[in-house]
Amino acid sequence: MSLKLSDIVLIGAVRTPMGRFGGTIKDVPSFDLGATAIKEALRRAGITGKDVSEVIYGSCRQAGNGPNPSRTASVRAGIPIEISTNTINMACPSGMKTVHLATEALRLGESEIVVAGGMDSMSTIPYLLKGVRWKGFQMGPKTIEDGWSDSIDPLTGQGMGDTAENLVEKYSMKREDLDQFAVESHLKASRAQKEGFFDEEIVPVKVPPATKRDAEILFSKDETIRHDADLNKMGTLPSAFRKGGAVTAGNSCGLSDGACAVVVTTRDKAASMGAKPLFSFVSFAQAAVEPSTMGEGPGVVIPMALKNAGMTISDIDLFEINEAFASQVLTNVRTLGLDREKLNIHGGAIALGHPTGISGCRILVTGYYAVKSRNKEILCAAICGGGGVTTAMIVKREN
Q1: Residue 331 lies in a domain
Q2: Which one of 60, 253, 260, 384 is the catalytic residue?
Q3: Residues in the chain with pLDDT < 50?
Q4: Distance CA 351, CA 61 (A)
Q5: For this structure, is 354 an active site residue?
Q6: What is the total count of domains within the chain?
Q7: Residue 362 maps to which CATH number?
Q8: Catalytic residue among 100, 186, 346, 354
Q9: CA 52/CA 68 separation, integer angstroms
Q10: Among this protein's residues, is 384 annotated catalytic?
Q11: Domain limits at 330?
Q12: Most buried in the list 103, 217, 314, 370, measured by CB within 10 Å?
């Protein structure tokens, strides 16, 4: 007989600091970031790699990282080679989907302890020389394409920034409102960093020296936050995706590098090991929406998660909605009638960045520590993704 979702608990949760695109950890492979997070999550859970049954880990930007890059992260974290690892790519919801898959494996009795999470290094996305393998160079120039071209959705022919502009048009949004939301994200994250709220959720990354003369760097704080963000500066930024548009680099998520890991097990297994649960799982939901307005996803999937939990919006203490774009978050605030005082209280991806494969898990981790800091109980986390996929999860603080 399978277990109830509430019988599944999380006993370790951590993330790396977010590295700025081209910043301090730009040369650290994603699987090394993943290994750092996994190793620390195991330590915090009070277990070793030998205790792990399975690793389910997200990574969306896999080019250049070898086959099944999560396998490399797993082994480098000290998990035995006999333990299977699965790399998940569900676009932005990947990290959350790994946690859901972990709960399912545990409920079915297929595993006892599962490591989930995600990793991505946006800085190491390679350039591509398409067509050369079979056609050769022959005569004339060839175009080197940025690997970022993979962010164009084949279903619509649009990039994610265009979908954000589609929301601006559909909901008649003002540029100033987007900029104001972005400023608030940075200032909330700045305050959280300065007051130490991020310290507990972060494990430092060791950055190898560039030359023999250099020393190893211990990277311990998010470097993506604009501590001096203000509306005037934000308003000077040009449109990023559409001429005369409202979406800019400032009111979009930052590009960053990082990893996140959690340890998930059954309540009985945690008790037998003497591990204290951080939170238990209440409900999960997934859906898909029109790809050209993919940012509407949370407004669809959060009510589904609430229904599965037998809850209403008012039962949720805090919300974490991934900030792909200010227009996307504000769309869902309007659709759901959310109280912004409960939303992303320590900032979001506009300030911290959005390494695609980790964010679905990162908002659970950041959200848990936010709930703990407020001495609250119920968290709802949701994320949209390219192609229109979307997920939401409701969890309950245990400690």
Answers
A1: yes
A2: 384
A3: none
A4: 21
A5: yes
A6: 1
A7: 3.40.47.10
A8: 354
A9: 18
A10: yes
A11: 5-124+254-394
A12: 370
